[in-house]
Design goal:
Helix content: 40-55%
Distance between the termini: 14 Å
Radius of gyration: 19 Å
Order of helices and strands: HHEEEEEH
Strand order of the largest sheet: 1-2-5
Number of helices: 3
Structural class: alpha+beta
Largest sheet: 3 strands, antiparallel
Length: 98
């Protein structure tokens, strides 16, 4: 199931017993802060949830899958996420649907 921003804000407002406006503000501030800190090269860890880390990929050679022509994949950075212990344990308890 995919949760959208409005659904997340509604859930946060209900569970934290705050207004939807306050929940929306908290969400916006959280996302803005995360992007700002990651953009500055900081790793962010939430104990139990997981870690967001900046990973640098070096320039490398690639091959176009259809034409088989070589090309250069430029160096770049990506944000990676590794789940924490509590989240990993929770995922192990969830049954997989067929």
């Amino acid at each position: 199931m995919r949760i959208t921003k409005p659904e997340f804000v509604n859930y946060l407002a209900e569970t934290a017993d705050i207004t939807k406006g306050d929940a929306s503000y908290m969400y916006d501030q959280f996302v803005t802060t995360m992007i700002e800190l990651l953009g500055k090269g900081n790793d962010i860890t939430f104990v139990g949830l997981g870690s967001f880390k900046i990973k640098t990929f070096q320039q490398r050679n690639g091959t176009h899958p259809l034409t088989h022509e070589p090309f250069i994949i430029p160096a770049h950075k990506r944000v990676t996420f590794k789940e924490g212990k509590d989240l990993k344990e929770l995922m192990g308890e969830i049954e997989v649907e067929d």
